[in-house]
Backbone:
């Protein structure tokens, strides 16, 4: 029997990554959103995004800020009972949003701040990332987050100053070469 054409081309686009077909097995448990350190900044939880993808809501999903706030910690992916590659799907959604022209500097600001820190220090500087991003895009929320950040600093979980990795020159050479070969952050 010939295979039936997809009735949801957007779902097929999203699933076009290794393991992407697991998205169909989402049971809407909410573990992903409950695990996400950036969840409060997202306009839709990953669970909601997946339901919207399954419903074929391409434009609404690609205009969302959800995947731009993904910090690639893979905590959601590790905790997912259905073994859905959630972080990889977030990267795929970023690619699709860029291709469709549905992104703006304010949405990508978090990613740009993160990349800038990696280029400068070789790693992210959490306090600088959080304060720089939230002060620029969510000043009121940054005030509400200050007790959390202060608590993390006082417990040694976050530093007031960034630290460079050893071998930063080699990392910068790798990043420069990747850009020359057409790689994009």
Residues:
């Amino acid at each position: 029997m010939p295979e039936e054409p997809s009735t949801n081309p957007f779902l097929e686009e999203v699933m076009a990554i290794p393991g992407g077909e697991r998205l169909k097995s989402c049971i809407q448990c909410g573990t992903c959103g409950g695990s996400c350190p950036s969840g409060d900044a997202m306009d839709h939880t990953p669970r909601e995004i997946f339901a919207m993808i399954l419903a074929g809501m391409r434009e609404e999903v690609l205009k969302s800020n959800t995947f731009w706030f993904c910090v690639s910690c893979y905590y959601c992916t590790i905790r997912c009972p259905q073994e859905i590659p959630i972080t990889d799907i977030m990267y795929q959604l970023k690619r699709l949003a860029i291709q469709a022209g549905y992104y703006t500097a304010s949405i990508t600001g978090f990613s740009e701040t993160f990349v800038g820190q990696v280029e400068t220090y070789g790693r992210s500087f959490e306090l600088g990332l959080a304060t720089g991003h939230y002060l620029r895009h969510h000043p009121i929320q940054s005030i509400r987050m200050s007790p959390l950040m202060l608590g993390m600093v006082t417990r040694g979980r976050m530093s007031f100053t960034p630290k460079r990795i050893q071998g930063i020159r080699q990392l910068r050479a790798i990043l420069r070469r990747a850009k020359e070969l057409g790689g994009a952050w």
In short: The two ends are 43 Å apart (CA to CA). The chain has two domains: 7-103, 104-185. Residues 7-103 form a domain with the Fumarate Reductase Iron-sulfur Protein; Chain B, domain 2 fold (CATH 1.10.1060.10). The mean pLDDT is 85.
